[in-house]
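Sanity check. The docking grid for zinc ion depends on where the pocket ends up, so I'm generating a full predicted complex first rather than guessing from homology. Inputs follow.
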Amino acid sequence: MKRKIVKCPYCGAHAALRSATVVHGDRAKDGEHLWICSRYPACDSYVSVHKRNNEPLGSLANKALRRKRIDAHRVFNQLSDSGMMNRGQSYKWLQAKFALNSRQAHIGKFSEYMCDEVIAACSEVLYNNPSFRAARDTKRKPNAVGYVLGGRATERSECPSLRGRSKVEFVRTRGVK
Ligand SMILES: [Zn+2]
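Predicted complex below; grid placement will be based on this.
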């Protein structure tokens, strides 16, 4: 059987399948594994795995990209969590929106730029959809912009700095560095 070769996209070194305790210490889940750059921690780059077969769940990512992918997942998951689409439909939407096939349309494979694009596109759909706004108001779920602003879940449904500006426009402006 051919041995899987995974390389770090930042430094070019090989990555190895190792216990998640290497990165997370005691906080690692039992039996959890990661593909980690062999130069870790000098090169802070790793990716989580499919539990089924230990294949990498995308490309290795540094801290900034890991953070971005988490934010993109949170906003993207709102499409199905809000009841607007089911899970399958939300992935079909992602494929159609960015002209990707089913193998490519995974946030774990996306760059920071693509994560920003996903966040902007999802935010636009969410804010244009009355059922999402209704669900957000009744369940007091953290909203998409809240995720983007804080980088993590927040209970705030409005942000003072957004006053007088469209929320989607704000997300877009932030996306461009
Ligand atoms: Zn590396």
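Relevant for the grid: The chain has seven helices and four strands.
Also worth noting: The helical segments are 21-24, 63-81, 87-98, 112-128, 130-139, 144-150, 167-175.
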